[in-house]
Design brief:
Elements (H helix, E strand, L loop, with lengths): L2 H7 L43 E7 L2 E8 L8 E9 L6 H6 L12 H8 L3 E6 L12 H16 L2 E11 L1 H12 L6 E5 L15 E7 L7 H14 L17 E5 L9 E6 L19 H10 L6 E2 L20 E10 L2 E10 L5 E2 L2 E5 L5 E6 L2 E3 L4 E5 L6 E2 L4 E9 L10 E3 L2 E2 L1 E2 L2
Parallel strand pairs: 3-4, 3-5, 5-6, 6-7, 7-9, 11-22
Antiparallel strand pairs: 1-2, 2-4, 3-10, 8-9, 11-12, 12-19, 13-18, 14-17, 14-20, 15-19, 16-17, 20-21
Organism: Lentzea indica
Function: Involved in degradation of plant cell walls. Hydrolyzes the feruloyl-arabinose ester bond in arabinoxylans, and the feruloyl-galactose ester bond in pectin. Active against paranitrophenyl-acetate, methyl ferulate and wheat arabinoxylan.
Keywords: Carbohydrate metabolism, Hydrolase, Polysaccharide degradation, Secreted, Signal, Xylan degradation
Length: about 425
Protein backbone atom coordinates (compact mmCIF):
# COMPACT_ATOMS: atom_id res chain seq x y z
CA UNK A 1 0.00 0.00 0.00
CA UNK A 2 1.37 3.40 -0.94
CA UNK A 3 0.12 6.11 1.38
CA UNK A 4 1.65 8.83 -0.83
CA UNK A 5 -0.20 7.52 -3.87
CA UNK A 6 -3.50 7.44 -1.99
CA UNK A 7 -3.17 10.97 -0.59
CA UNK A 8 -2.21 12.52 -3.93
CA UNK A 9 -5.09 10.79 -5.71
CA UNK A 10 -7.58 12.01 -3.11
CA UNK A 11 -6.46 15.62 -2.84
CA UNK A 12 -9.48 17.03 -4.68
CA UNK A 13 -12.10 14.84 -3.05
CA UNK A 14 -13.17 17.15 -0.24
CA UNK A 15 -14.13 19.96 -2.62
CA UNK A 16 -16.68 17.94 -4.56
CA UNK A 17 -20.38 17.72 -3.80
CA UNK A 18 -22.29 14.78 -5.19
CA UNK A 19 -25.89 13.84 -5.75
CA UNK A 20 -27.66 11.75 -3.11
CA UNK A 21 -28.23 8.05 -3.43
CA UNK A 22 -31.56 6.60 -4.47
CA UNK A 23 -33.14 3.22 -5.17
CA UNK A 24 -35.13 0.40 -3.68
CA UNK A 25 -33.94 -1.39 -0.57
CA UNK A 26 -33.33 -5.12 -0.73
CA UNK A 27 -35.02 -7.89 1.13
CA UNK A 28 -37.44 -5.93 3.30
CA UNK A 29 -36.79 -4.53 6.76
CA UNK A 30 -34.49 -6.39 9.12
CA UNK A 31 -36.13 -6.97 12.52
CA UNK A 32 -35.59 -4.42 15.28
CA UNK A 33 -32.10 -4.71 16.70
CA UNK A 34 -30.99 -7.12 13.97
CA UNK A 35 -31.15 -9.93 16.51
CA UNK A 36 -33.74 -12.13 14.82
CA UNK A 37 -32.99 -15.69 13.77
CA UNK A 38 -30.35 -15.87 11.09
CA UNK A 39 -31.78 -15.89 7.57
CA UNK A 40 -29.93 -17.78 4.87
CA UNK A 41 -30.04 -16.67 1.24
CA UNK A 42 -31.35 -18.59 -1.77
CA UNK A 43 -27.83 -19.82 -2.42
CA UNK A 44 -27.73 -21.90 0.76
CA UNK A 45 -27.70 -25.63 0.15
CA UNK A 46 -26.75 -25.22 -3.51
CA UNK A 47 -23.42 -25.50 -5.33
CA UNK A 48 -21.86 -22.02 -5.44
CA UNK A 49 -22.85 -20.09 -8.57
CA UNK A 50 -19.85 -17.78 -8.20
CA UNK A 51 -16.14 -18.46 -7.67
CA UNK A 52 -13.35 -16.30 -6.34
CA UNK A 53 -12.09 -13.84 -8.94
CA UNK A 54 -13.30 -10.95 -11.08
CA UNK A 55 -16.89 -10.81 -12.30
CA UNK A 56 -19.07 -8.41 -14.27
CA UNK A 57 -22.68 -7.43 -13.75
CA UNK A 58 -25.11 -5.20 -15.63
CA UNK A 59 -26.46 -2.48 -13.38
CA UNK A 60 -28.54 0.43 -14.58
CA UNK A 61 -27.48 -0.21 -18.18
CA UNK A 62 -23.78 -0.18 -17.29
CA UNK A 63 -21.31 -3.05 -17.12
CA UNK A 64 -19.87 -2.95 -13.63
CA UNK A 65 -17.24 -5.25 -12.13
CA UNK A 66 -16.35 -6.71 -8.76
CA UNK A 67 -13.82 -9.09 -7.24
CA UNK A 68 -15.12 -11.92 -5.08
CA UNK A 69 -13.08 -13.72 -2.43
CA UNK A 70 -14.64 -16.89 -0.99
CA UNK A 71 -13.22 -18.28 2.27
CA UNK A 72 -11.16 -21.48 2.19
CA UNK A 73 -13.25 -24.66 2.05
CA UNK A 74 -16.49 -22.82 1.27
CA UNK A 75 -19.47 -24.78 2.61
CA UNK A 76 -22.80 -24.21 0.87
CA UNK A 77 -24.70 -25.10 4.06
CA UNK A 78 -22.88 -22.51 6.15
CA UNK A 79 -24.35 -19.01 6.43
CA UNK A 80 -21.44 -16.64 5.94
CA UNK A 81 -20.88 -13.05 6.97
CA UNK A 82 -20.49 -10.65 3.97
CA UNK A 83 -18.06 -7.72 3.89
CA UNK A 84 -18.17 -5.23 1.02
CA UNK A 85 -14.79 -3.46 0.79
CA UNK A 86 -14.89 -0.09 -0.99
CA UNK A 87 -11.78 1.51 -2.50
CA UNK A 88 -10.58 5.10 -2.23
CA UNK A 89 -10.47 7.75 -4.99
CA UNK A 90 -7.95 6.60 -7.56
CA UNK A 91 -7.86 3.14 -5.99
CA UNK A 92 -9.32 -0.02 -7.45
CA UNK A 93 -11.17 -3.13 -6.40
CA UNK A 94 -7.92 -5.01 -6.95
CA UNK A 95 -6.13 -2.73 -4.47
CA UNK A 96 -8.68 -3.66 -1.81
CA UNK A 97 -8.70 -7.37 -2.64
CA UNK A 98 -4.96 -7.83 -3.07
CA UNK A 99 -3.88 -5.56 -0.23
CA UNK A 100 -1.59 -3.62 -2.54
CA UNK A 101 2.05 -3.48 -1.49
CA UNK A 102 1.28 -5.12 1.85
CA UNK A 103 -0.40 -8.06 0.12
CA UNK A 104 -2.54 -10.54 1.99
CA UNK A 105 -1.91 -8.87 5.36
CA UNK A 106 -3.80 -5.75 4.21
CA UNK A 107 -6.41 -7.44 2.00
CA UNK A 108 -9.81 -5.86 2.72
CA UNK A 109 -8.22 -3.43 5.18
CA UNK A 110 -6.67 -6.34 7.06
CA UNK A 111 -10.01 -8.00 7.80
CA UNK A 112 -9.50 -11.00 5.52
CA UNK A 113 -6.43 -12.06 7.48
CA UNK A 114 -8.30 -11.73 10.79
CA UNK A 115 -11.31 -13.63 9.45
CA UNK A 116 -9.04 -16.45 8.30
CA UNK A 117 -7.43 -16.53 11.74
CA UNK A 118 -10.87 -16.77 13.35
CA UNK A 119 -13.09 -19.29 11.59
CA UNK A 120 -13.02 -18.38 7.89
CA UNK A 121 -16.59 -17.18 8.28
CA UNK A 122 -16.60 -14.22 5.89
CA UNK A 123 -17.17 -13.76 2.17
CA UNK A 124 -15.38 -10.66 0.88
CA UNK A 125 -16.26 -8.65 -2.20
CA UNK A 126 -14.64 -5.53 -3.69
CA UNK A 127 -16.79 -3.59 -6.18
CA UNK A 128 -15.17 -1.24 -8.70
CA UNK A 129 -16.30 2.40 -8.75
CA UNK A 130 -16.78 4.32 -11.99
CA UNK A 131 -13.73 6.47 -12.72
CA UNK A 132 -12.11 4.88 -9.66
CA UNK A 133 -14.49 6.81 -7.42
CA UNK A 134 -17.95 6.73 -5.88
CA UNK A 135 -19.70 9.85 -7.17
CA UNK A 136 -23.03 7.98 -7.01
CA UNK A 137 -24.89 10.29 -9.46
CA UNK A 138 -28.61 9.62 -9.26
CA UNK A 139 -27.88 6.80 -6.83
CA UNK A 140 -26.27 4.63 -9.52
CA UNK A 141 -23.59 3.28 -7.17
CA UNK A 142 -26.19 2.44 -4.53
CA UNK A 143 -28.12 0.57 -7.22
CA UNK A 144 -24.90 -1.22 -8.21
CA UNK A 145 -24.45 -2.40 -4.62
CA UNK A 146 -28.13 -3.49 -4.57
CA UNK A 147 -27.60 -5.55 -7.72
CA UNK A 148 -24.33 -6.95 -6.40
CA UNK A 149 -25.88 -8.05 -3.10
CA UNK A 150 -28.82 -9.60 -4.95
CA UNK A 151 -26.48 -11.61 -7.16
CA UNK A 152 -24.41 -12.80 -4.23
CA UNK A 153 -27.55 -13.77 -2.31
CA UNK A 154 -28.76 -15.85 -5.24
CA UNK A 155 -25.51 -17.71 -5.75
CA UNK A 156 -23.95 -18.06 -2.30
CA UNK A 157 -24.95 -18.90 1.26
CA UNK A 158 -24.98 -15.64 3.21
CA UNK A 159 -26.55 -14.68 6.52
CA UNK A 160 -28.74 -11.72 5.57
CA UNK A 161 -28.41 -10.25 9.08
CA UNK A 162 -24.62 -10.17 8.75
CA UNK A 163 -23.85 -7.86 5.84
CA UNK A 164 -21.18 -5.17 6.39
CA UNK A 165 -19.56 -2.43 4.34
CA UNK A 166 -16.41 -0.41 4.89
CA UNK A 167 -14.03 1.78 2.99
CA UNK A 168 -11.41 4.51 3.10
CA UNK A 169 -11.93 8.16 2.07
CA UNK A 170 -14.15 8.05 -1.04
CA UNK A 171 -14.92 4.45 -0.06
CA UNK A 172 -15.76 5.75 3.40
CA UNK A 173 -18.13 8.25 1.80
CA UNK A 174 -19.83 5.43 -0.08
CA UNK A 175 -20.01 3.33 3.09
CA UNK A 176 -21.75 6.28 4.75
CA UNK A 177 -24.16 6.55 1.79
CA UNK A 178 -25.06 2.88 2.30
CA UNK A 179 -25.58 3.50 6.03
CA UNK A 180 -28.01 6.26 5.11
CA UNK A 181 -29.87 4.47 2.33
CA UNK A 182 -29.54 0.77 3.19
CA UNK A 183 -29.67 0.49 6.96
CA UNK A 184 -32.17 -2.35 6.48
CA UNK A 185 -29.69 -4.26 4.29
CA UNK A 186 -26.38 -3.77 6.11
CA UNK A 187 -25.80 -4.62 9.77
CA UNK A 188 -22.99 -2.10 10.25
CA UNK A 189 -20.47 0.08 8.44
CA UNK A 190 -16.86 1.08 9.10
CA UNK A 191 -15.91 4.51 7.73
CA UNK A 192 -12.17 5.18 7.48
CA UNK A 193 -11.41 8.91 7.11
CA UNK A 194 -14.67 9.60 5.28
CA UNK A 195 -16.93 12.52 4.46
CA UNK A 196 -20.30 13.03 2.79
CA UNK A 197 -19.04 12.55 -0.76
CA UNK A 198 -21.53 10.02 -2.15
CA UNK A 199 -24.77 11.46 -0.79
CA UNK A 200 -27.05 10.45 2.05
CA UNK A 201 -30.45 9.34 0.78
CA UNK A 202 -32.69 8.85 3.80
CA UNK A 203 -30.30 8.81 6.71
CA UNK A 204 -32.96 8.47 9.39
CA UNK A 205 -32.64 4.80 10.38
CA UNK A 206 -30.29 3.37 12.98
CA UNK A 207 -27.32 1.21 11.97
CA UNK A 208 -24.23 0.14 13.89
CA UNK A 209 -21.54 2.67 12.99
CA UNK A 210 -17.77 2.91 13.43
CA UNK A 211 -15.78 5.95 12.36
CA UNK A 212 -11.97 6.15 12.22
CA UNK A 213 -10.30 9.51 11.52
CA UNK A 214 -7.00 11.33 11.93
CA UNK A 215 -6.94 14.63 13.82
CA UNK A 216 -4.50 16.12 11.27
CA UNK A 217 -6.27 14.91 8.13
CA UNK A 218 -5.67 17.64 5.52
CA UNK A 219 -7.68 15.93 2.75
CA UNK A 220 -10.96 15.30 4.56
CA UNK A 221 -10.90 17.26 7.82
CA UNK A 222 -11.82 15.34 10.96
CA UNK A 223 -14.77 17.70 11.45
CA UNK A 224 -16.34 16.06 8.40
CA UNK A 225 -15.91 12.64 9.95
CA UNK A 226 -17.42 13.84 13.21
CA UNK A 227 -20.46 15.06 11.28
CA UNK A 228 -21.04 11.61 9.79
CA UNK A 229 -20.67 10.02 13.21
CA UNK A 230 -23.08 12.40 14.89
CA UNK A 231 -25.91 11.51 12.51
CA UNK A 232 -25.84 7.95 13.81
CA UNK A 233 -25.26 9.01 17.38
CA UNK A 234 -28.69 10.64 17.03
CA UNK A 235 -30.30 7.87 14.98
CA UNK A 236 -29.08 5.18 17.36
CA UNK A 237 -30.27 7.02 20.47
CA UNK A 238 -26.78 7.29 21.96
CA UNK A 239 -25.91 9.78 24.65
CA UNK A 240 -24.33 12.83 23.02
CA UNK A 241 -20.76 13.52 24.06
CA UNK A 242 -17.47 14.94 22.86
CA UNK A 243 -15.25 11.85 22.96
CA UNK A 244 -11.61 12.26 23.86
CA UNK A 245 -9.15 12.50 20.99
CA UNK A 246 -5.35 12.25 21.18
CA UNK A 247 -3.22 15.36 21.26
CA UNK A 248 -1.16 16.38 18.26
CA UNK A 249 2.30 14.89 18.42
CA UNK A 250 1.27 12.02 20.70
CA UNK A 251 1.20 9.47 17.84
CA UNK A 252 -1.47 7.51 19.68
CA UNK A 253 -5.14 6.69 19.20
CA UNK A 254 -8.24 6.73 21.40
CA UNK A 255 -11.27 4.51 20.83
CA UNK A 256 -14.60 5.55 22.38
CA UNK A 257 -17.74 3.42 22.53
CA UNK A 258 -20.76 5.68 22.98
CA UNK A 259 -23.07 4.94 25.89
CA UNK A 260 -26.84 4.86 25.94
CA UNK A 261 -27.21 3.54 22.38
CA UNK A 262 -30.20 1.40 21.49
CA UNK A 263 -29.49 -2.29 21.94
CA UNK A 264 -27.85 -3.63 18.81
CA UNK A 265 -26.88 -0.20 17.44
CA UNK A 266 -23.51 0.77 18.90
CA UNK A 267 -21.48 3.76 17.75
CA UNK A 268 -17.69 3.65 18.08
CA UNK A 269 -15.34 6.55 17.32
CA UNK A 270 -11.60 5.99 16.87
CA UNK A 271 -9.49 9.14 16.57
CA UNK A 272 -5.74 9.02 15.97
CA UNK A 273 -2.89 11.48 15.80
CA UNK A 274 -2.17 11.37 12.08
CA UNK A 275 -3.31 12.35 8.62
CA UNK A 276 -5.30 10.85 5.76
CA UNK A 277 -4.67 7.12 6.03
CA UNK A 278 -6.65 4.00 6.92
CA UNK A 279 -3.63 2.32 8.48
CA UNK A 280 -1.91 4.52 11.10
CA UNK A 281 0.61 2.93 13.42
CA UNK A 282 1.04 4.27 16.94
CA UNK A 283 4.42 5.91 17.20
CA UNK A 284 4.41 6.96 13.55
CA UNK A 285 4.07 5.60 10.02
CA UNK A 286 1.37 3.44 8.51
CA UNK A 287 0.99 -0.11 7.19
CA UNK A 288 -0.69 -3.43 7.78
CA UNK A 289 0.50 -3.60 11.40
CA UNK A 290 -1.97 -0.82 12.20
CA UNK A 291 -4.37 -1.11 15.10
CA UNK A 292 -7.35 -0.22 12.84
CA UNK A 293 -7.74 -3.75 11.49
CA UNK A 294 -8.16 -5.24 14.95
CA UNK A 295 -10.59 -2.55 16.07
CA UNK A 296 -12.71 -2.86 12.92
CA UNK A 297 -12.76 -6.66 13.18
CA UNK A 298 -13.74 -6.46 16.84
CA UNK A 299 -16.54 -4.09 15.92
CA UNK A 300 -18.12 -6.21 13.18
CA UNK A 301 -17.50 -9.60 14.77
CA UNK A 302 -19.28 -8.56 17.99
CA UNK A 303 -22.56 -9.23 16.19
CA UNK A 304 -21.75 -12.91 15.69
CA UNK A 305 -22.40 -14.59 12.37
CA UNK A 306 -20.08 -16.30 9.96
CA UNK A 307 -20.40 -19.77 11.42
CA UNK A 308 -23.95 -21.11 11.36
CA UNK A 309 -24.68 -24.31 9.45
CA UNK A 310 -28.33 -24.98 8.70
CA UNK A 311 -30.08 -27.40 6.42
CA UNK A 312 -33.70 -26.86 7.48
CA UNK A 313 -36.10 -23.95 7.87
CA UNK A 314 -35.55 -22.03 11.10
CA UNK A 315 -38.12 -20.67 13.50
CA UNK A 316 -37.89 -17.89 16.05
CA UNK A 317 -39.11 -17.76 19.63
CA UNK A 318 -38.67 -15.05 22.22
CA UNK A 319 -38.45 -15.68 25.93
CA UNK A 320 -38.45 -12.94 28.55
CA UNK A 321 -38.48 -13.21 32.32
CA UNK A 322 -39.44 -10.61 34.90
CA UNK A 323 -38.37 -10.79 38.53
CA UNK A 324 -38.59 -8.31 41.39
CA UNK A 325 -35.77 -5.77 41.60
CA UNK A 326 -32.50 -7.09 42.99
CA UNK A 327 -29.97 -4.85 44.68
CA UNK A 328 -31.32 -1.93 42.59
CA UNK A 329 -27.92 -1.10 41.10
CA UNK A 330 -28.28 -2.95 37.80
CA UNK A 331 -30.93 -4.12 35.40
CA UNK A 332 -30.66 -6.83 32.74
CA UNK A 333 -32.81 -7.76 29.77
CA UNK A 334 -32.20 -10.87 27.68
CA UNK A 335 -33.67 -11.35 24.20
CA UNK A 336 -33.55 -14.98 23.08
CA UNK A 337 -33.98 -15.95 19.43
CA UNK A 338 -34.02 -19.71 18.86
CA UNK A 339 -34.14 -22.10 15.92
CA UNK A 340 -33.73 -25.86 15.54
CA UNK A 341 -30.78 -26.63 17.83
CA UNK A 342 -29.34 -23.13 18.10
CA UNK A 343 -30.08 -19.74 19.64
CA UNK A 344 -28.70 -16.25 20.08
CA UNK A 345 -28.92 -14.26 23.30
CA UNK A 346 -28.65 -10.46 23.32
CA UNK A 347 -28.15 -9.16 26.85
CA UNK A 348 -28.52 -5.49 27.77
CA UNK A 349 -26.92 -4.39 31.05
CA UNK A 350 -28.02 -1.08 32.60
CA UNK A 351 -26.28 0.65 35.48
CA UNK A 352 -29.20 1.80 37.65
CA UNK A 353 -26.94 2.95 40.48
CA UNK A 354 -25.53 6.41 41.13
CA UNK A 355 -21.84 5.54 40.70
CA UNK A 356 -20.06 4.59 37.49
CA UNK A 357 -18.99 0.99 37.02
CA UNK A 358 -15.37 0.49 35.99
CA UNK A 359 -14.73 -3.12 35.06
CA UNK A 360 -17.51 -5.66 35.33
CA UNK A 361 -18.37 -9.35 35.31
CA UNK A 362 -21.87 -10.70 34.78
CA UNK A 363 -22.65 -14.11 36.27
CA UNK A 364 -25.57 -16.32 35.23
CA UNK A 365 -26.47 -19.99 34.89
CA UNK A 366 -27.42 -21.36 31.50
CA UNK A 367 -30.35 -23.80 31.42
CA UNK A 368 -29.39 -27.44 30.95
CA UNK A 369 -28.47 -28.40 27.41
CA UNK A 370 -27.28 -24.93 26.37
CA UNK A 371 -23.62 -24.48 25.36
CA UNK A 372 -22.09 -21.22 24.15
CA UNK A 373 -20.29 -21.54 20.81
CA UNK A 374 -19.29 -17.91 20.32
CA UNK A 375 -19.96 -14.45 21.69
CA UNK A 376 -19.45 -10.75 21.19
CA UNK A 377 -18.63 -7.72 23.36
CA UNK A 378 -17.56 -9.91 26.30
CA UNK A 379 -15.39 -12.88 27.20
CA UNK A 380 -17.33 -15.96 28.35
CA UNK A 381 -16.14 -18.74 30.65
CA UNK A 382 -17.01 -21.54 31.04
CA UNK A 383 -19.27 -22.17 28.03
CA UNK A 384 -22.07 -23.97 29.90
CA UNK A 385 -23.48 -24.20 33.40
CA UNK A 386 -22.47 -21.30 35.65
CA UNK A 387 -21.09 -18.74 33.17
CA UNK A 388 -19.27 -15.46 33.80
CA UNK A 389 -19.17 -12.81 31.07
CA UNK A 390 -16.36 -10.27 31.51
CA UNK A 391 -15.95 -6.88 29.88
CA UNK A 392 -13.63 -6.24 26.94
CA UNK A 393 -11.42 -3.17 26.64
CA UNK A 394 -13.93 -0.87 24.97
CA UNK A 395 -16.95 -1.45 27.25
CA UNK A 396 -15.40 -1.74 30.71
CA UNK A 397 -17.06 1.47 31.94
CA UNK A 398 -20.81 1.87 32.42
CA UNK A 399 -21.95 5.31 33.52
CA UNK A 400 -25.01 5.73 35.76
CA UNK A 401 -28.21 5.17 33.74
CA UNK A 402 -26.13 3.97 30.75
CA UNK A 403 -26.47 0.59 29.07
CA UNK A 404 -24.25 -1.74 27.11
CA UNK A 405 -25.18 -4.73 24.96
CA UNK A 406 -23.40 -8.08 24.81
CA UNK A 407 -24.42 -11.44 23.43
CA UNK A 408 -23.62 -14.97 22.45
CA UNK A 409 -24.61 -17.82 20.18
CA UNK A 410 -25.31 -21.24 21.67
CA UNK A 411 -26.54 -24.71 20.90
CA UNK A 412 -29.43 -26.24 22.83
CA UNK A 413 -31.16 -29.59 23.25
CA UNK A 414 -34.68 -28.20 23.53
CA UNK A 415 -34.66 -25.74 26.42
CA UNK A 416 -34.36 -22.22 24.97
CA UNK A 417 -35.16 -20.31 28.16
CA UNK A 418 -33.14 -17.36 29.42
CA UNK A 419 -31.21 -17.66 32.70
CA UNK A 420 -33.35 -17.17 35.80
CA UNK A 421 -31.08 -14.54 37.34
CA UNK A 422 -28.04 -12.34 36.70
CA UNK A 423 -25.53 -10.76 39.07
CA UNK A 424 -23.19 -7.91 38.18
CA UNK A 425 -19.98 -7.74 40.20
CA UNK A 426 -21.60 -9.96 42.79
CA UNK A 427 -24.87 -7.98 43.11
CA UNK A 428 -28.18 -9.40 41.91
CA UNK A 429 -29.75 -7.41 39.07
CA UNK A 430 -33.37 -6.72 38.34
CA UNK A 431 -34.57 -8.45 35.18
CA UNK A 432 -36.78 -6.58 32.76
CA UNK A 433 -38.60 -7.55 29.62
Amino acid sequence: MSRHRIVVALAAASAVVFLGAAGIALGGTVPEGHVGAMAGTAGCGKPPALASGQHTINSGGQNRSFILRLPPNYDNNRQYRLFVGLHWRGGTANDVDSGGGDGYNWSYYGLRRLSDQANNGTIFVAPQGNGNGWANPGGQDTTFIDDLVRRLDGGLCIDTTQRYAGGFSYGGGMSYALACARANVFRAVVVYSGAQLSGCDGGNQPIAYMGIHGISDNVLNIAQGRGLRDRFVRNNGCTAQNPREPSQGSRTHIVTAYSGCRAGYPVVWAAFDGGHTPAPIDGGGDGWRTWTSGEAWKFISQFGGGGTTTTTTTTTTSTTTTTPPGDAECKVSDAINAWNTGLTSTITITNTGTAPISGWSLAFTLPGGQTITGGWSAGYSPMSGQVTARNVDYNADIAPNASISIGFQATHTGNTSAPDSFSLNGKTCAISS
